Amino acid sequence: MEALAQVHVADGYPTNWPARPADWLAGGSVVGAWVAELEGRVAGHVALCRSAADDVAPALWSGRTGVAGEGIAVVSRLFVAPGARGHGLGAMLLERVVAEARELGLFPVLDVVTSDTSATALYERTGWRFLGTGEQRWSPEQTVTVRCYAAPEAAAGAGAGAGAGVGVGVGPDGEASPS
């Protein structure tokens, strides 16, 4: 939770700090979650979630492709601790979650609040395709404007790599794996 707390202080993500951060990271419709480690410490996280009926990004993708919601997964809860940035962890986490979605026969999409320009830059730098903007209802009292993206086309031989001292370590079963 330390990395998430650092991201919240530095970047305001998540926008609404959860009462139980661990439950927020692993709860709801999470299919799988992965962490990135740097020098033996958790430095980042990403989750793959089932799409919900009111999710904007899956609706945009479905409207363009005709793929039903059950064939779409949402990349969520992606963050990298401020002190661990610049090592490619965000890109590695995105590669890993996209590979898992495809292995499950799901097409990955994501959304990001329009004010999060750092995340937007990462998605665009790593080939995510802009679908459009929409209004996402987070609660009865809160609606936010989000930019929606579709995963890049699959590349031959694509996979999650790792550099020295960097690993991706938790899989869809929630169990730690060697990194």
In short:
By secondary structure, the protein is an alpha+beta fold. It is 28% helix and 32% strand.
Write the layout of secondary structure elements.
Elements: H1 2-11, H2 21-26, E1 30-38, E2 41-50, H3 56-65, E3 72-80, H4 89-103, E4 107-113, H5 117-125, E5 129-139, E6 142-150, E7 166-168
Parallel strand pairs: 3-4
Antiparallel strand pairs: 1-2, 1-7, 2-3, 4-6, 5-6
Structural summary, described in words:
36% of the residues are buried. The model is unreliable at 156-179 (pLDDT under 50). The protein has 5 helices and 7 strands, in the order H-H-E-E-H-E-H-E-H-E-E-E. The protein has helices spanning 2-11, 21-26, 56-65, 89-103, 117-125, and strands spanning 30-38, 41-50, 72-80, 107-113, 129-139, 142-150, 166-168.
Mean pLDDT: 86
Overall SS class: alpha+beta
Distance between the termini: 19 Å
Largest sheet: 7 strands, mixed
Number of helices: 5
Let me know the number of strands. Answer: 7
Strand order of the largest sheet: 5-6-4-3-2-1-7
- What is the helical fraction, as a range of percent? 25-40%
Provide the descriptors you would attach to this structure in a database record:
179 residues, seven-stranded mixed β-sheet, 28% helix, globular
